[in-house]
Structures are given as C-alpha cells and as structure tokens.
Amino acid sequence: MDFTPLFHNFAKHITLTKTEEKYITSLLDFKIIKAKEFLVQQGEISKQSAFVLNGCLRGYTIDSEGTEHVLSFAPKDWWIADMYSLLSQKPGNLNIEAMVDTEVALISKTNQDLMYEKVPKLERFFRIIIEKSLVAYQQRLNDNLSLTATERYMKFCKTYPQLINNIPQKQIAAYIGVTPEFLSKLRAKQVKAK
Asked: Does residue 119 sit in the same domain as residue 74?
C-alpha cells in the first residue's frame, strides 16, 4: 500500500527521515471502507484515528428524534476520529461512515503512542493538527450560533469546495443545520443571483 499522501501530510509540519517513515509504515493499517459502511459507530469505543487516502468520510450524531447532525466531513487528505472516545477510551457518540468507497490509513492509539516514543516529532505534528481541529470546532460552534443559514452555507463551500457537487444535498443540509428543502431554495437563489 502507498502511504505517500500521509507522508505529504506529515511534511506540512515536520520532516521525517526515510528510517522514520519506514518505522511509521510498519505501525499503520490500510483499510477500504465501502460506501455506507462505518469506521466506528455511536456507542463503540474508538481505537484509532483515520487519515483519508482517497474517498470521503463523515462524522455525525443522531439525536433522540432520529435526526442526523453532521459534525464533519473528511475528504482526501483529512484526518478524522472520535476524539472523545479515542482519548478517554469510553463509548463514543460519533458515527464515522464512508460516503463513497474510501481508503484510509489507520493509526491505533497504542501505535500512535509507540510512534511518539520512537519519533518524538510526531507529537508536535499531532499537537498542531489537534490545535487546528479545536480552533475549527470552536469557530464552527460560533458560526452556528451567530451566522445565518446562507452564511453557513457559504462557509461550507469555502471549507469543502471539493464536496459541493459530490455529496448528497441532505448531507450538506445536515452539516449547516437546515432542511434539504431550505438548502435547495438557497442554492437556487444563488444560481439566480449569478
């Protein structure tokens, strides 16, 4: 399996030697998740984080009414995990599902800890992406509280330009917190305005 995209992702923040790359590769798992299959489901204990080599995953919860709330998408070159469950080793609330057939590199919590011991600079890499993730989630919460639906949609388009025309409209609606019908009207209004 070719983990080159993962090493390009690491290279955004740290420089690895070939020996370090070989060691890291020995601790990775490769998996193909078929469309609509789960990496992890609500109530399970998450054992790994995933880097998307190809395809797209989505992280979502289901409320007591049965409504899905999409928290994040992970297209190619993105990381995703149920961080609460992974770090606490308690049952999680997140479903992580493949939207299309998706290839991922998986790092178990155990192997990630081993990587930190042998390649300490990986701690810096994961600290940076966790910090960026925390900032993004905080900004998303603020956006959901303060932006209009139109503004949230525009922000979605900026954050996930590769997904706008490649995922079902109902998934985008669940992410920005509107009904699919409202999103359809919103998109029609934008097309008309152009």
From this structure: yes
Mean pLDDT of 174-190: 89
pLDDT grade for 105, boundaries at 50, 70 and 90? very high
Of residues 61, 85, 56, the one with CA closest to residue 73: 56
- How many Cβ atoms from other residues are within 10 Å of residue 31's Cβ? 16
Sign of the dihedral through C-alpha 161, 94, 106, 123: positive
129 and 190 housed in the same domain: no
160 with 142, same domain: the answer is no
What letter represents residue 174's amino acid?
A
How far from the centroid of its chain's Cα atoms is residue 3's Cα? 18
Taking the C-alpha atoms of residue 65 and residue 132, their distance in angstroms, rounded to an integer, is: 32
164 and 117 co-located in one domain: no
155 and 140 within one domain: no
- Check if the beta carbon of residue 184 is closer than 8 Å to that of residue 192: no
| Same-domain check for residues 66 and 108 | yes
- What are the tokens at 136? 């993004």
User: Quick one: CA torsion of 142, 143, 146, 149, rounded to 10 degrees?
Assistant: -160
Residue 71 has pLDDT above 90, yes or no: yes
**3-state secondary structure (DSSP) of residue 108:** strand
Q: Residue 127 belongs to what domain range?
A: 4-146
